[in-house]
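Input (MFS transporter):
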Amino acid sequence: MAETISLSNEWKRPPYSWLTFMLFWCALIVVSGAYVTTPLLHVFESEFQVSKTMSAWTSSSFSFFYAIGFLLFGPLSDRIGRKTVILIGLLSLAITTPLIGLSTSFSVLVILRGLQGFVASTFAPSALAYVFDVFPSNRLITTIGFISFGYVTSGIFGQVLADLLYQWASWKTVFFLFGFLYFMTFIAASIYFPTPAKSGEKEGIRYYVINSKKIFSERNFILIYFITITLLLTFMGMYTLLGDFFSHEPFQLNEKQILGVRALGIVGMIISPFAGKIVNKLGVLVTLRTGIGLSALGLFLLGGGNHILFLVGMSIVYVMGISITFPSIMVLIGELGGNIRALVNTYYAFILFIGAMLGPIIAISLLSIGTYFTTFLILSLLLVGSFLLSLKIKI
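Output:
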């Protein structure tokens, strides 16, 4: 814990509030990379002459290699240190992201998106363990809440900023600007992130094999992971279809109006920084179940309504539920994981983004054989299943 670990920096450690903001910003800007292509799928369809299903791979390739990267960078952060892995990732993002904007073929674009996802995966598995290394126990839940806020907000922030930049300039500008932001974030993190004097634990392969068996033989972790896969699966699926949903009859919204609908999702995310207080008051399991229940209700009603204000309101309810669910799961992992929480978090993040990879593909496939209503209904039923599983978690 931070109370017992002296920091190796010779200069005075920045205030915890500033470190919390920095971690929030890193979570926001790094994970936004997963979502920047969601509003651009139609652009890639026309520019590279590919199908809607193929264009979805610009999102899914990022998510797949992002998930794979967790299996490497989680253990690596144990060996060489959390801050080191985070900095390597930010610098790698600053280099690879602008290259995407230079893509001249669809295959190169998909490959570079996969590479971007792989190096982006350095942050999340290191961040939770870093917080437990550096912050005092009385600040842990609040800090985790703000990191979760960054993760959740990135889902809207990435889409909205990418859409704005596309409408203002071109899709290539999206990746040039994000590359610049990653570089500036790398510089700031290099300066302000303290390094715990205690370095990584340098555990061997046997350690990970033994503890992986322990994790997947524990009922609570299995239930948490089943719930986890539905979260970004439904989020990516819903937002992949949202633009087309509102652009067709009876709504026929234009691009700027659809951008406004996406941006309003941020309203549902405002609750995320207060998730720590909600957990303290209601308990982590009640908070988790409330979040899943809200998200299932919002997604179900999104498919069944026909009034624009009602539908926008339901999209906000859905996002609000997701915003409560993420920090609840992170707190659960921190509490149940003990001294192997970094490995537990690694598998959590891996499974989370396998869901993100599947989301656009499943949503587009469901729509091809059904309607928007049936697609949103099936996605909401996945969340209903997660709610039922959450009732079986015991702590």
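The chain has one domain: 16-390.
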